[in-house]
Each structure stands twice: as structure tokens, then as C-alpha cells.
Amino acid sequence: MNLEYWRSEIDEIDAEILRLLQSRALVVEKIVRIKAGAGLPLIDERRERAILRSVLSRRKEPLSIEAVECVFGCIIRESRRIQIEATGAE
């Protein structure tokens, strides 16, 4: 298998990652509605820490702890942005 084959594999994986991120964002929007209806706080730092602990516990080489923390930190920040935007909160 040549370089182009592996680049094509990367492209397919990237498309799947994006699809999953978009699906996650749609679920976040549903959670916002549930939180609003139940009068729950928008941000749940305990849940965010639990998510990070969970993904870190499943991390394997060659991914570094720092890389996983960085990627999921971005995902969590984007989820917060979506929630804030959906509610108009600051």
C-alpha cells in the first residue's frame, strides 16, 4: 500500500470524526433543552471532569495524555459554546 492509500484512509477517518462531532453537537442541543426545562445549571464542571477522566482511561499509545486532553478540552469548550448560544446566556 502506498502513500496515497494511507492518505485516503486519513481522509475517511477525518470525515467520520467530523460526522461524530456534528452528532455530538446535536445531542448537546437536546441536553440544553432538558436542562432549561428542569431548571438545571448550564455548565456542569463535574460532568466535564468525568468525561475527561473517562476518555483518558481509554487512551492508548501512540496518543499522548496531552493530546487527548487538548482534543477533548476543545470538544468540551465547543459544547459549552453551543449551550450558551442556545440559551442566550453569557
Which SSEs are present, and which pair or pack?
Blueprint: H1 3-38, H2 45-58, H3 65-87
Helix pairs in contact: 1-3, 2-3
Terminus-to-terminus distance: 51 Å
Q: Stretches where pLDDT falls below 50 for ≥5 residues?
A: none
Structural class by SSE content:
mainly alpha
* Overall pLDDT metric: 96
Largest sheet: none
Report the total helices: 3
How large a portion of the residues is in β-strands, by DSSP E? under 5%
| Beta-strand segment tally | 0
Structure description:
The chain is mostly helical. Helices cover 81% and strands 0% of the residues. The protein is built from three helices and no strands. Helix 1 (3-38) packs across helix 3. The longest helix is centred in the first third of the chain and has 36 residues, at 3-38. The chain starts with a helix and ends with a helix.
Characteristic terms for this protein:
90 residues; mainly alpha; 3 helices
In short:
By secondary structure, the protein is an all-alpha fold. The protein contains 3 helices and no strands.
